[in-house]
Specification:
The protein is mostly helical. It has six helices and no strands. Helix content is 80%, strand content 0%.
């Protein structure tokens, strides 16, 4: 009887320890989650319903395309299209936030000039 109680206690302790360890976040992760959530929430709310649903089910809930297709009652190709468009709209909605926080650099016209310079140099060398 004592052995069974000890085994149950060890099993319970192991589960509790694992659950507590997985619930812990580093301070950086907690701060990032808190600061991004309002901006992401606003950007998500601006998406059309079908796009928002697909993005949330895939990127936040981790469902497969097939599972999302079943939930949304549409073909998998439609799910893929809605995800692509929803993510593009979400990225556009979060662009200002990403630039202000330093996640991405502000686009500059010099990038186009650099590409043109690269192509000109490549043509001058005779590269194909």
């Amino acid at each position: 009887m004592l052995d069974a109680a000890s085994a149950e206690q060890e099993a319970t302790d192991g589960v509790l320890v694992q659950a507590q360890a997985s619930d812990k976040q580093s301070p950086q992760q907690a701060m990032l989650a808190a600061s991004v959530s309002d901006d992401v929430q606003r950007a998500l709310e601006q998406l059309p319903d079908d796009f928002r649903t697909a993005v949330i089910l895939c990127d936040m809930q981790g469902l497969s395309y097939k599972e999302i297709a079943e939930i949304m009652a549409c073909p998998v190709g439609t799910v893929m299209s809605r995800l692509f468009r929803g993510r593009k709209l979400l990225a556009a909605g979060l662009r200002e936030f990403a630039v202000s926080e330093g996640y991405v650099k502000e686009a500059t016209p010099s990038g186009i000039n650099d590409l043109e310079q690269y192509r000109a140099a490549k043509a001058a060398r005779g590269d194909k």
